[in-house]
Amino acid sequence: MPDKNTEIEIPISTEEHVISARGEVRNFIAEHLNFSPLERMHVLTAVSELARNIHNYAGSGKLQVSLANSPSGKRGLKLVFQDNGPGIRDIDEAMKERPVHQYQKGMGVGLSGSKKLADEFHIVSVLDQGTLITWIKWERQPS
Amino acid sequence: MKIPVPLLKIGQVLLVPIEIELTDEMAEDLHIKVLKKIEETGVRGLVIDVSLVEVIDSYLARILINIGRAAKCLNCNTVVVGVTPEVALTLTQMGLSWRGVRTALNVEEAIALVESDA
Question: Tell me, what's the ipTM?
């Protein structure tokens, strides 16, 4: 049974959820992990990007927040974004970086950008079934 | 839609302090309202203050960049104030370019910057 304190599940179905998800994750990392201000900004920005993608493209989904433990003893933050939306047809295409004049309302920068902010990033997407994104950031200084 | 973001005309500068989280609708609305105001008043400078915005993601960055570029078409230069080092570094690491949008450390500096361009 998951320890309620070290694992939380946040629904993402309204625009307000995108905003409140950041607050919940901010509180979670303040309570459990030792991140620098820059690392914290990476986390909150990734939450914003990926939760917004769920809201914009899938309509609704959820974010599971938990502590990650590596075999070497590192601790970190694990974010799992999950939706039952239309899925991404071509992940490589969606993740391509685009020059600034091509910044349209699109998932590209958010998706590829979020990957760059993570230590580990995995994405699985099946058309008409949904998308699952795992985002992990390790502590640099143990707490 | 009445958005709770004030547009403050100070001489030849329009100051827009963003103090709340912007929903998609509010952001679109702000974009239009700001450009309308620039057109009405003919101000030569736009200062957008994001000091109170904790996280600037690619969505908000895109809005700021788009407003900046549209304002330029109306002969108005834009400076964004209140971008913290953490925000700037994070957006840069994500691969986002601030091209065309200048930043300043505070509102006074921003106003001086746009006034010197006018």
Answer: 0.90
